[in-house]
Design goal:
heterodimer, A: 350 residues, mainly alpha, Ubiquitin-like (UB roll), Ferritin, 2 domains, elongated, B: alpha/beta, four-stranded mixed sheet, 6 helices
Chain lengths: 350, 171
Amino acid sequence: MPHVPTDTDVYEVFAQTGSGSPLNHVGSLVAPRRDAAWHLAKETYGRRDDLFRLWVVRRTDLIVSSADDRGLLAAKTRMPHRQPGFPTTRRRDRSAAPDTAAPPQQQPDGAASGPCDDPRGATGPAPGRLWPALAEDLFVLGNRLGERIVDYIDLEESLAVGSIGQEALAHAETILTLHGFDASAADAHFFERPQEQWRVSRVIGRLGDWPSTVVCGLVIAAAVSVLAEERAGDEPAFAAIRDEQLVHLDHWRRWVRALAAWPETSEEFTRAFTEVTHCAGDLFGAGPQDALTDALHARLAALVGDSGVPGSRLPHLPVPRAAGTGGSVLADCLARGRLVRAHYAPQVFL
Amino acid sequence: MNAPAAAATPPPDPLTGVVADVRDPEIDVTLGDLGVVRSVSRTDGRIVVRLAPTRLSCPARGEIARRVRSALTDAAPGHGIQIVWERGIWQPAAVTAAGHDALRTAGYRVAGTTPRCPYCAGDDVVRAGRFGGAVCKVPYDCRGCGSPFDVIGTAGCSAVLPVPDVRQGGS
């Protein structure tokens, strides 16, 4: 417990050596009386240096903490879990386990171990290929949104963009986990793969200005919720992804309607809406085209059409994804990730 | 991952209490009261802890895992510890009665019931936005006593009360 000390003849000395320096506790001394204490302090602590300020206080006039007060003294809002310690902790985890050190090579729970850059995709049916591709889109979208949490003038939008970005990243990781990646393999998949191996949707390349970002958010949230619906019945994590993405979809829809309605933004927005929806045909284009992908695409088109804004140029059928898309948006995203990981010293934040 | 193995477990391991007493890093409530602890079991010197995060993107998972490991290492030294995250299965109903009390004391309400102000217990509350200061929270304002508070749990994010349209997207 905090307590009042009982040693009545002990004084604590605080001194300031210049007007710009802080007043510091410099030591303590024993003196018979208050005024004697001050003079003794001046002789003891101001002998070699000019003092700017000298304060002396009797120890019994203090309230001091005890050694067992650490609990009381702990900061309640430090929240270490909100500090970005992840880039180094996972890397450390991986270095301790050499079998996961190689690029995306991981241990799927079943038989299939496909080529390095497309695990499981080669063997599974279409959804098995669609998911990792959408995870790449979510990863880049989440990173891009994270860069937008700078505008504290509109706190509510900052919270929304931050939450959606954070969830997009978590969904990307969850999707890989559900496809047999462990945490460090997912980490390597996102942070250590060369850009040529990424197969993001063409909408990722449009993640620039705010109207285009809004439309990208809309089509990606629509695509992920449509695909998650397929597995929501048998896997609770997919149901959670669907529910959370529907909240995101609702948020982007409000933005789409607002940007289309305001006279100041409608022209620029209409152009962005046309261009991004035109690129969105490949969201379900990562695998072979079949009846399932056509049906998914039709539901995606319905969701985008439901947004209450005309002018969607979403193709009628899925378009195959190409490697090497994403351009400078993807390149910046990957470069930023590498930069952060290269320069964080271990335990910087914790 | 889909439950049957966990459902068939015999009586709870005594270490369950150790894990249940670990405190959540974000809010001053224990993991057991928050309904995050699903099961704790021991198989050949290995402790398997199954935890359900309140949201898929819960940023506290690393810190929770660290605290659970440290508590288990103190209580039962020398065991391997495996932490399994059961994704997407946490429900507001998993919060215990003690958890409701602890959360109310900390200024939170749990989704799934009529939102009431944790400070004055009034029900004249309005949702103050769609996204809160953490992914598990939805902000509310009490119009009775003027206190802002957060509702915890997925259900609050999609339903409960509509948000007035005028607050959205205006900058």
